[in-house]
Amino acid sequence: MKRNQIFNSIRSASVSLLLIAAGGCTNLDEVLSDRITSGNFLQTKEDVIRDFLRPFEHSYWSIQGGSTFMLQEDSSDELMTPNRQGDWFDGGQYQRVHNHTWTPNDNYTSDAWNALYGGITLATNTLEDLQAIQDPSRYSMTQAELDGMISEVRTLRAWLNLRLLDFYRNIVIVTKVKGETQSGPQVPPQDAFNFIEKELKESLPKLPTRQSLGANAVGRWTQGGAAALLVRLYLNAKVYTGTDHFADCATVCQDIISGKYGQYALETRWDAPFDYTNPTSGETVFGFPGSFGLTHWQYDSGMYFWMLPNNATFYFGFTDFGTANPKYALQPGRDVDSTEYNFALGKPYLKFRKYPDDVRLKTYKNLGNSKREGMFLQGYLPYTNSAGKLDTVRSTKGPYALFFRDQVGMFLAAKPGTKIADKTSNMNNADQNSGLTPVKYPYYPSSDPNKISSAYAEIRLAEIYYSLAECKYRAGDKAGAAVLLNTVRARNYPTGSPSLYKPDGSQLTDQEMLDEWGREFLVESRRRTDLIRWGVFNTGTWWDKQPDADNHTAIFPIGQNVLNVSPQLKQNPGY
């Protein structure tokens, strides 16, 4: 059975178990055969597989559930959720994220903690079940199969713990849930670092490789995936613990690229890592399988579907999810009079424009037969309406034609190039024309058989190249860094493009390195982490954002709702 099919059956089974429990017999003299416990749940190999897969489903949801995507992107210099004529003001909560003025009473500070610990709890429960199996042959399994399952779930839990460490630093390490009534104590970041490192190193040798799994590799934690998590841990180690591990990071990166943990390869097209063929792509180091009929969390409203402009679905010809309501857009690079802002950070679209022959700069367009070009929704978006007439995407406030621009303001029905009287451009003064939208995962038409079929590429081989490049740059090897970056960047420009870095790496600076991370991994839920690692998250200036008073906002507060039920937890410093 394919993993995404099992995900769907698990969801149904969970509901069924709740209904069974609710309707159980009330005769206390009777044996309660409808009660499922850890002692009688695992009867067949299929039961073991279901138990094994349950935490994966929740973890896929957690890429955007619990506001995790929003907190990574809206707090950075990349995305914004402005007040669009009354839409998305929501008590100013997104403006507090933008300005780093969140408080423990903002629900998302609890939501992210709960979402990630929900996955850890499920994973730990599964681990306790699997580790309790004394005779795997009873389930028609070998010890090696069982050990592999245990190692995958430990790796999944390490991924969740790593994200918690990144968000909160002072976290609780959960290794037992059965029979427990409250969480354990928080541990120092170094202890959490050590735990995650140990889990990954011990799990890695017993994991499968991408090649051993073949076409079924997507959704499975492999040796390459576990090694890539070590790369993330080591790359950010100085932020987490005060001690850098760039040399360790470089070693693991080189081992991955050299094929020590399985064979991987970069795609030759920029869009291929995100297309419907990505489950079998050599660039996908770890991904969650997606499909239109089953699970596809990156395409849902908590993530990329809320990154589409109003009515943009008509332009795609994709009408299965209704019309969009844009929560996210790129922060602007220009003011209302089209003058570029002078701050170094932010301006994500203009960072692409620095290299004008970048093929990603084309306006996104579906070409038919499950193909597309371009990455940005910009300008007018024409389409043929239901009456068979040529139309263009229109505002829900007008209904005037929308012209999407790299600016924020009250443009309303103003034609492009028209000077408007209201010069205000901030988080509280945006209309539906404001801000451009990137489209990394395609929205093919409703009639396309491959619509909404991409896997979510959580880890791409490109990340390993960029991580190694950063390690080389920090070690003074700019030439080595340039070669690695250009190996990936070459697919974004025509053959012989002057946009590739000079072989000596002389164009590379701290700012250019950070800008290039932003270009390659735009809206891939890592921008906050990268800004913190480069030391500008709290000190930097970008659109409608001044530097923070201090650096305590580099980590989030533990939400008050969490503290209310777990009084043994201590709030993070500064909150």
UniProtKB/TrEMBL annotation:
Record key words, sorted: Cell outer membrane, Membrane, Signal
One Pfam family in the UniProt entry: SusD_RagB
Main location: membrane
Domain RagB/SusD: 423-575
UniProt KW Membrane keyword: yes
Locations listed in the record: Cell outer membrane
Transmembrane segments: none
Keyword Ribosomal protein: no
Signal peptide: none
SusD-like N-terminal domain mapped to chain residues: 96-235
InterPro entries: SusD-like_N, SusD_RagB_dom, TPR-like_helical_dom_sf
One GO cellular component term: cell outer membrane
Similarity field: Belongs to the SusD family.
Name of the protein: RagB/SusD family nutrient uptake outer membrane protein
